[in-house]
Design a protein that fits this description.
Elements lengths: L2 H15 L8 H8 L24 E4 L13 H7 L4 E4 L16 H19 L4 E6 L1 H12 L6 E7 L8 H5 L17 H6 L4 H7 L9 E6 L19 E5 H4 L7 H6 L2 H11 L12
Parallel strand pairs: 1-2, 1-3, 3-4, 4-5, 5-6
Length: 288
């Protein structure tokens, strides 16, 4: 088992002990990790055809230091079980850096997302996809939507703790305890970290002229305990067809922070399902 996954399991266990009933049990992560390959559960299954109930495939976009598997060990099966065709990609690889992704220039990563969405649409025959991203993965797709023609191919973008208006390098370093062995990368060239710092040229261009583009529905799900993207309200978007959600408004005892809200939190995952199918949404509560 990867070291950072062990750290996440320890985090989940600690939160459960302190009463964080909103989290998926740590055993769920362990069970998912022991089930391989992912395609055996219908995740990244290119034979999947969207149903009438869920006509759009869902593309999952991991965060900084993440990858297409470990970021989604809980959410991907959760959505597959609900009848969605679900796919995930790796992006932002640096030469000579295995496993840890989301580190390359974000505009180039958006180009990788563009190619991947085209592949998914061609495979499923769908006209549009829905995107769900965690951290950088909730922000990077906005470049794809705004500058690479993605708005014509995407119905909805759901961001879990996205750094839509940036963070500080200090904030990004708070991810390090979850990814042992990655600290040396901070002393080398890591373009995505520079791109995510508040006020960077990348973010200035991304947010010029408004946060959103017409024709796409946006949902942001944030936690007030986010220690990486702070203040947490900087994650929220402004514009038409935007819904900003604070996890603690749904469940006051939710303790998830930046990593857990994307990877483990079942209330957040229920809210993702609501965002993907708002016509059949049900209230998200501590018991979701």
């Amino acid at each position: 088992m990867l070291p950072w996954r062990r750290a996440l399991r320890a985090l989940a266990a600690a939160l459960l002990v302190t009463g964080a009933v909103t989290l998926t049990p740590a055993t769920a992560t362990a069970d998912a990790a022991s089930t391989a390959p992912a395609i055996s559960r219908g995740w990244n299954d290119y034979d999947c055809k969207p149903s009438a109930a869920h006509p759009r495939p869902v593309v999952l976009v991991h965060g900084t230091f993440g990858n297409s598997v470990d970021n989604w060990l809980v959410l991907a099966p959760y959505l597959v079980k609900r009848g969605y065709c679900v796919y995930s990609l790796d992006y932002g690889q640096l030469p000579g850096v295995p496993f840890f992704n989301g580190l390359g220039p974000i505009d180039k990563s958006a180009g990788q997302l563009d190619t991947f969405v085209d592949k998914v649409l061609a495979s499923t025959g769908a006209k549009k996809a829905d995107l769900v991203g965690h951290s950088q993965g909730g922000m990077m797709p906005r470049h794809y939507l705004k500058f690479l023609g993605g708005a014509a191919k995407v119905n909805a973008l759901v961001g879990l703790a996205p750094d839509n208006h940036g963070t500080t390098l200090l904030g990004l370093t708070k991810l390090l305890p979850y990814f042992p062995g990655i600290e040396d990368l901070l002393t080398t060239k890591t373009p995505s970290l520079a791109d995510q710092v508040a006020g960077s040229p990348f973010l200035t261009k991304l947010n010029e002229g408004g946060d959103t583009v017409p024709g796409v529905r946006y949902t942001v799900i944030a936690t007030k305990y986010d220690e990486v993207v702070t203040p947490y309200r900087t994650q929220f978007l402004t514009g038409p067809d935007v819904r900003n959600v604070t996890l603690q408004d749904l469940c006051p005892v939710a303790l998830s922070e930046h990593v857990a809200i994307g990877i483990l939190d079942r209330v957040a995952h229920h809210e993702v399902a609501n965002a993907l199918d708002p016509a059949h949404a049900t209230p998200s509560t501590c018991l979701s």
